[in-house]
Amino acid sequence: MVDHGSPNPLWERSRFLPALHSAHERDGWLSGAAVIDAARVARIPDAEAWEAATSYPEFRFAPPASDGPATCMGLSCVLNGAVATPGAATQSCRFRCYDAPVSGAEAPFPEEHIRLAGPLLAADIPDFGALERARGMPAEAALALIDSASLRGRGGAYFPVARKWRSALAEGRPVALVVNAEEGEPGVFKDRAMLCLRPRRFVEGLAIACQVLAPAALVVFVNGEAAPARASLVATLADCAALFREPPQVMSGGGGYVLGEETTLLNAIEGRKPVPRLRPPYPVESGLFGMPTVINNVESIANLALLFRGSVEGYRERGTPEAPGTRIFSVSGRVARPGAYEFALGTPLSTILAAAGAGPAGPAIAVLAGGPSGGFLDPSRVDPPMLPGLLHQTGAVMGSGGIIVLDQLSQVRPAALAMAAFNAAESCGKCTPCREGAPLMADVLARGDASRALELAEVVGAASLCGLGQMAPGPVRSALHFWPEQFR
Amino acid sequence: MTIRVDGHEVMPRGSVLDTILALGIDLPHLCKDDHLPAIGACRTCLVLVDGRVAAACSVPAEGVVTVDTLDERVVRIRRVVLALTAAMQVEGPAGGPLCGTTAAILAQASIAPAPVAEPEHIDASGPFFTFNDAACILCGRCVVACQDLQHISAIGMAGRGRATRVTPGASVSFRESICTSCGSCVAACPTTALAPKGAAS
């Protein structure tokens, strides 16, 4: 765990973000003095504290203007009739897209919105049989088991889990394990569903990962506003304290989509400005405080509990040979039954849309797959199997399983502009193409200059430092491909 | 193993950028300071590395087979990025709409200077240098010099996205900050955003 009593000054830096987060929860905003106080706790210089604190979109630096619940202006809420009323507060996606339109803070994920449960979302099992089996295996046998199941990370990049673990272990130094439960993508609520309702499956998976990796540091980073998911996780970890040599550190910050980029998350944990690092070195070589670091998603970790309980053959019964298993899709927008759907990898998009009852007022006109880092597609023209990699050459991806359905042609342009503006607003500001180019791309698209928007899309995609900028062109390029007439 | 740069077979040196510069190719680079580690922020030194667009400063040369600095597509992308950089600058106290390295690079790339506007913010509170926000291209060299070279950490990049600004902390001027006027940030600045006092005239 991250040891708060450690005399190592590097480790003290990890006290910064928790101190900021609790000051923000206490006061509802951060004064300059509160930031300096947190800097003193972590023993970091004022200017470094200030540059880090001001980089989180969910931190306020002035007292909130009104006490009324803010209206969610996330895409799914807007598609379902949310409008900004003058004078009333608004907020970006609150991740309750299954209940759209919503206002106010986050709420515990409701059981009835688990619309389709597979092995991951099935009711939690009271024993820890999977962990017991892992404990009876040497680390190499456990790695071979994960390898033989071809388990791929569910964060969106689908990197083979065992290969990542082996790379970190091959460094021959104590490793760090970081679980990314930041979940800041509009329209995605699967980690919240998992942590609120099936926390034991995740915690058992985490204990299995600890058994194999024997991490010297273990951090679960939960979205700063996902209070119900965090509370559920903390309570379950307390119940299951005996499973861990030292209790995992649960950490929260001030949001930001870019925290989905793993080196940015490492900077956040270290109390540094949350911007991406250059690679190499890769996190498995030199990550959290220079340790070889494994960063996995909540759903990837939960898969371990399935894998070590049953047989590899049983695990491979679902999905495809290259991408076995299931994944949780967060389906929202204009659908009759929004919520979490667990489908086998390789399931056709049309099957998922049919299950969710796409388009209560008509057929699904457009689908946004992969959110702001993905793209739109026309489900009447393409019906891709949901697999890692591009679902369509113009940008749509499975990503972290977000699916937002549009049922009117007139929604395409505002939805594409909303995604372009989201990426521009979420740019961390480190690299020029993303910081300057993404807002300009949104701007010229809004003004109807499609060819300039496509030119900028090429530049932002090719020249940006991290995945946020590299994937930002998807919604623009794909919307212009399928519905060019909507942008004239 | 040699590396092929624009048709020349050479030995790899440090980064791909180091290898390119050692060949005498004048590839533009703004955020890479000779004396500091790569930042990878400005994306000015884009080249094709084994067929992929990459910032030359942040790719180790070892293991690379071919580098192409003249590929039509990568030159076009590089110019658009430079135009985005140029558009950040407005006329500063030095008198020119574009200054220092940026002006030279943009001249090299034949890009028209950005429109002139009023500077938003000038901090002349320090004894030895001024900070002119309007000339800043957010390359990060000053911050790396202050935080990682001098280990002073008097400045940082506050805010995010387009609202990012180099600042000495929360509502603090340079004079009120812990800045020691060591001059490392001024030496690192590729524009005139950080300039010695007196240099403006």
Give the key terms.
heterodimer, A: 488 residues, alpha/beta, six-stranded mixed beta sheet, four-stranded parallel beta sheet, B: 201 residues, alpha+beta, three-stranded antiparallel beta sheet
Structure description:
The complex is a heterodimer of chains A (488) and B (201). Chain A is an alpha/beta fold and 488 residues long. Chain A has helices spanning 9-12, 16-27, 32-42, 46-53, 75-79, 129-135, 139-148, 161-170, 190-197, 199-213, 227-239, 262-269, 298-307, 312-316, 349-356, 412-426, 432-446, 450-463, 467-471, 473-482; strands at 71-72, 90-91, 114-116, 176-181, 217-222, 249-252, 293-297, 326-333, 339-344, 366-369, 375-377, 402-406. In chain A, the strands form 3 sheets. In chain A, strands 3-9-8-12-10-11 form a 6-stranded mixed beta sheet. A 4-stranded parallel beta sheet of chain A has the order 6-5-4-7, with helices on both faces. In chain A, helix 6 packs parallel to helix 10 and helix 7 packs antiparallel against helix 8 (161-170). With 201 residues, chain B is α+β, with helices and mostly antiparallel strands. Chain B has a 5-stranded mixed beta sheet with strand order 2-1-5-3-4, with helices on both faces. In chain B, strands 6-7-10 form a 3-stranded antiparallel beta sheet.
